[in-house]
């Protein structure tokens, strides 16, 4: 939130129209977070919609340093997943990886034939290790455990970090 306020302060002096758009997307994102932080499940379409607002904020903050490729071929209104799970995964990717305009972090969001959403990114750890509580990923796993026996699958190699989120109809 405070990083976004810093970005907004800079935008106000540079581009008033973009600052206005930024406030609208920031408001939409945080309203969604407040309204749905205790919500168990949300439609995939709503989750992707709010993810777009969150990605707008990241794009303004990091410019060309982050590229997000979405390839969802499902009827998104028919499926549900725990609220804010994809946003948490994007946030983790940004927090734990180094990137720049010259070497962008590409995050890919897609579905597989097994009715799962996959969020993956190149594994480019920052030079200085980030202290982490792993609460985000653990939170997602716990919320899935409450819903079903289907597990969140995490794959990590030297080159890739990938999380597979089951979706429910």
How would you describe the overall organization of this protein?
The protein is globular. Helix 1 runs antiparallel to helix 2 and helix 2 (16-36) packs across helix 3. Helix content is 46%, strand content 22%. The mean pLDDT is 87. It contains five helices and seven strands; from the N terminus they run H-H-E-H-E-E-H-E-E-H-E-E. The strands form two sheets. It has a five-stranded mixed sheet with strand order 2-4-5-7-6, with helices on one face. Strands 1-3 form a two-stranded antiparallel sheet. The longest helix has 21 residues, at 16-36. The chain has 169 residues and is of the alpha+beta class.
Average pLDDT metric:
87
Helix content: 40-55%
The number of distinct helices, counting runs of at least 4 residues, comes to 5
Structural class: alpha+beta
Cα shape: globular
Record the strand order, biggest sheet.
Answer: 2-4-5-7-6
Distance between the terminal alpha carbons, to the nearest Å? Answer: 33 Å
Low-pLDDT ranges:
none
Secondary-structure element series = HHEHEEHEEHEE
Q: Could you tell me the strand content as a percent range? A: 15-25%
Largest sheet: 5 strands, mixed
